[in-house]
Amino acid sequence: MNPALKNLLRPHYIDLQGYVSAGMESDKSAEKIFLNANENPYELPDLEGFNRYPEPQPKALAAAYAKAYDIAPDQIVMTRGADEAIVILTKLFCEPTPNQHPREGGDLQQTTGDAVLVCPPTFGMYGVDAKAMPSNVVEVPLLKENGTFALDKEKIIETALSYTPSPHRGEGRGGGASIKLIYICSPNNPTGTSFPHDQIAEICREVEGQAVVILDETYAEFSSQGSMTARLADHPNLIILRTLSKSYSMAGMRMGCFISGDTNFIALVKAKALDAYPLPQASVEAALHALSGDIRPIAKANIEKLIAERERLIPLLSGNPLVRHIYPSDANFLLIEMEKAGEFIKFATQNNVVIRDFSTKPYTEDCIRLSIGTPEQNNLVLKLLNDFAP
Ligand SMILES: Cc1ncc(COP(=O)(O)O)c(C=O)c1O
Asked: pTM of whole model > 0.70?
């Protein structure tokens, strides 16, 4: 495993013996009789095949992901959505802070636990999963400039390097906590902003050996700059999250993955850090279908429709006198700053249209986040905005 990951991994994972499930011990050949996993031999009508535990990391699905993301199958850990990938990565890298509640923005030198660095406003689960360890959360907010958001690259690097790694790693390192994970979400939820790949690459280079950069590409398919998977080989400390939830319309199936250039790291994770049978059979079958040659072009066409709708909506929404600003978006949603944001959300809810309220959250004051729907749904939002008389 490359030292940029190995030296930051919680050390007990190196020696940990992972669970070997019955499913891992034997293939599922049709001619075999399986009496090894305490499964029920009777299949229920219309639920055939579900009496058997699924393959833990199905090879056919890894191959399908690999084709879709233009990587090798052994670079992927398949998870229940990108959400579970975040939980697993937190568990792998962040040492808990015993008997101590981590404080946001607190003095890390006073604690022995690890930390994650997040750039708010961003996806809330990075911080929630870190606090659940419990580990610390350090914020380096996005910069609001020229009507959009930008990474505070210098501050991210400076902050990540200014905390000495945890003492448990030894080797003459100092005390205090260490920022183990830097989360960059691009396109970012809830702002919709894509951050330049060169900036992300520079952060990876500068913090290599000190921190792992987790690039969340949940919305990459909607963005003009696409994915950074082609640059994984250049950055041993870069891990990329992908999901079928958005671009493949599969949120209900909970299928995602994380990707690394280091196949030894991926093998370690599969052997030691996953649940025994993490991926439900129905979800695996649905994912294989979604990624098949028949369905991928349909998913691609839907992405194009959503991007076209996003672009159609921007001038129409901007024309409303209540709308102050629409942040440039590379995703399937818009962050809209407006007068009476909270009241409009209530008005929309009364009319059975549910929109996410960010108006009272830090960094997104007076903002709502509108997911792009079908043209009819979007037209209804435009009508509601015109009818709204605060
Ligand atoms: C930025 C970001 N990351 C991860 C997720 C979780 O995605 P999944 O459905 O794959 O768990 C979301 C869900 O909205 C998200 O916005």
From this structure: yes
Give CA–CA dist 127/116, Å, rounded.
Answer: 7
Dist. CA 15 → ligand 1 center (Å): 31
Residue 266 Cα to ligand 1 midpoint, Å, equals: 21
The ligand 1 atom at the shortest distance from the C-alpha of residue 80 is: 11
Q: Is the Cβ atom of 243 under 6 angstroms away from ligand 1? A: yes
Give the residue-averaged pLDDT of 275-299: 97
Q: Is 185 in the pocket of ligand 1 (CB under 6 A)?
A: yes
Alpha helices, DSSP H, located in the chain: 3-6, 12-15, 22-25, 59-69, 81-93, 125-132, 153-162, 197-207, 263-272, 281-290, 296-318, 341-350, 375-387
Of 24-38, 214-228, 280-294, the range with the lowest mean pLDDT is 24-38
Class of domain 296-387: alpha beta
Domain ranges of the chain: 3-21+56-290, 296-387
pLDDT reported for residue 390: 79
Residue 171 pLDDT exceeds 70: no
